[in-house]
């Protein structure tokens, strides 16, 4: 009973965090704000997948969280490199 209530509260707060990150991604005044919002969106999505993986007994959620973490790191690094140098591949 307490686990279901805690899961519902955590799920609601994660959805609010995802919506706020999406709002900053769309309305960000600079490209740096948008890159940071996209990185935070990845992190919040990973946390949501881990939360679902804890609640539902399945390995798919945790494996997809690991894959999303790797792709999020690579894309954030590529965006920042493009922002600093204007070119991704040297």
Q: Your description of this structure?
A:
It is a single chain. By secondary structure, the chain is mainly α. The protein has one domain: Orthogonal Bundle (Helix Hairpins). It has helices spanning 2-27, 31-55, 59-85. Helix 1 (2-27) packs antiparallel against helix 2. It starts with a helix and ends in a 5-residue tail after the last helix. The model has no long low-confidence stretch (mean pLDDT 90).
Entry summary:
The protein has one domain: Helix Hairpins.
What are the key terms here?
about 0% strand; flat; about 85% helix; Helix Hairpins; about 90 residues; mainly alpha
Gap from first CA to last CA? 56 Å
Major sheet summary line: none
Overall CATH architecture: Orthogonal Bundle
At the fold tier of CATH, the topology name is: Helix Hairpins
Give the helices and strands as they follow along the chain: HHH
Average the pLDDT over all residues and give the rounded result: 90
Number of domains: 1
Please tally the β strands and state the result. Answer: 0
Cα shape: flat
